[in-house]
């Protein structure tokens, strides 16, 4: 019997947990954070998270689901106990080191399996897979991938938080790179290169975007051919118009303190107190992933995924989609659909297609647009 252990679970995990329990029955254990008890989840399968007790409970072949950034100790625990993992964390050097022997031991570690990072990986791979069938020598490619959460009804700050702002602040304090005009470009702070971006919704909206982290590893992960000519490639965040003005004081603070963790933790605590989402308040989860090919200066192929999901009384959209993705990841691991080793999301075309259907069903608005087709021929 394969047991699924969802660790450090809070209300943000409820949607995915309830799906897993419906499908996996009693083969789910919930390890709650901060000693809370989750409504709607049987008390028989939940208990407060404790590292030592989790270690005792996990058996070889089990699956550990870890949605939020946690200590690498959980990854080491999984490897020690012979367990698989589905996690929402970015792949880091520390994670790579902790799970270095996973493939040889037949263990699956699927990282970046939440909303962001996560759903945008599905969209990017879907576009790359389709373009590969139409690729022509001499094509010049432009790839952009943006995602983020935002309030549906914003204030002057243009942002609100339903989890700690610390990971976002760390990203803003981390140098970034992207490809522009065919060359690798760098910025010490992502907020130095904020620009406008028009989101292709039924009623178009102007937003702001900026690159964060490094794009090169993702081009390889998405299956870009090394021989393809890339003029533009950028992965980053999408924010509400005016976000740069609302965050001007935050940027100045980060520019002064850099990645000093004490200063960032203190700033995160202040921002979370000042700009939290209220209970049942509507958030938005937005994604825009585009791949365009030019030939002789003219667009000849262009596809784009756009998603706009709203939350409210049925819970935050970000939480719903994040936990859905992690539940899908756990199900796929249990079913033996993921090969051993460390993965950035899933690469199997059938899983990508199926998961995009699940995401579209939950998102409300999620659509792949063919920009080179006559508008009257576009599928809804």
Automatic annotation (TrEMBL):
Say if the entry is tagged with keyword Oxidoreductase: yes
Q: Name one GO cellular component term.
A: cytoplasm
Record's keyword terms, sorted: Oxidoreductase
Positions of the Saccharopine dehydrogenase-like C-terminal domain: 114-359
Which GO biological-process labels does this protein carry? Answer: lysine biosynthetic process via aminoadipic acid
Highest rank taxon of the organism: Bacteria
Name a GO molecular-function annotation. Answer: saccharopine dehydrogenase activity
Q: What is this protein called?
A: Saccharopine dehydrogenase-like C-terminal domain-containing protein
Taxonomic lineage: Bacteria, Pseudomonadati, Pseudomonadota, Alphaproteobacteria, Rhodobacterales
């Amino acid at each position: 019997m394969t047991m699924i252990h969802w660790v450090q679970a809070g209300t943000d995990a409820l949607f995915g947990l309830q799906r897993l329990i419906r499908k996996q029955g009693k083969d789910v254990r919930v390890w709650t954070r901060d000693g809370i008890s989750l409504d709607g989840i049987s008390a028989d399968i939940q208990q407060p998270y404790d590292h030592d007790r989790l270690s005792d409970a996990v058996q070889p072949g089990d699956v550990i689901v870890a949605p939020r950034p946690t200590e690498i100790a959980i990854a080491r625990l999984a490897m020690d106990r012979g367990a698989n993992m589905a996690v929402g964390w970015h792949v880091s050097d520390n994670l790579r080191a902790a799970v270095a022997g996973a493939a040889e031991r037949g263990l699956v570690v699927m990282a970046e399996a939440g909303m962001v990072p996560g759903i945008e990986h599905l969209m990017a791979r879907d576009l790359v897979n389709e373009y590969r069938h139409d690729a022509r020598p001499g094509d010049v490619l432009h790839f952009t991938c943006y995602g983020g959460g935002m309030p549906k009804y914003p204030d002057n700050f243009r942002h609100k938080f339903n989890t700690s702002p610390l990971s976002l602040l760390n990203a803003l304090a981390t140098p970034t790179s992207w490809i522009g005009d065919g060359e690798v470009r760098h910025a010490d702070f992502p907020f130095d290169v904020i620009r406008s971006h028009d989101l292709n919704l039924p009623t178009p909206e102007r937003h702001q975007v900026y690159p964060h982290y490094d794009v090169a590893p993702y081009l390889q992960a998405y299956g870009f051919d090394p021989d393809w000519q890339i003029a533009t490639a950028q992965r980053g965040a999408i924010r509400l118009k005016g976000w740069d003005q609302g965050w001007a004081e935050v940027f100045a603070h980060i520019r002064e303190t850099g990645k000093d963790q004490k200063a960032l933790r203190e700033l995160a605590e202040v921002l979370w107190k000042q700009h939290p989402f209220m209970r049942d308040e509507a958030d938005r989860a937005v994604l825009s992933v585009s791949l365009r090919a030019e030939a002789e200066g003219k667009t000849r192929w262009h596809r784009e995924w756009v998603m706009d999901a709203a939350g409210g009384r049925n819970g935050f959209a970000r939480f719903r989609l994040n936990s859905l993705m992690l539940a899908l990841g756990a199900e796929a691991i249990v079913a033996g659909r993921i090969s051993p080793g460390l993965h950035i999301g899933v690469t199997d075309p059938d899983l990508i297609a199926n998961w995009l259907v699940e995401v579209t069903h939950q998102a409300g608005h999620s659509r792949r647009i063919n920009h080179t087709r006559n508008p009257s021929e576009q599928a809804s």
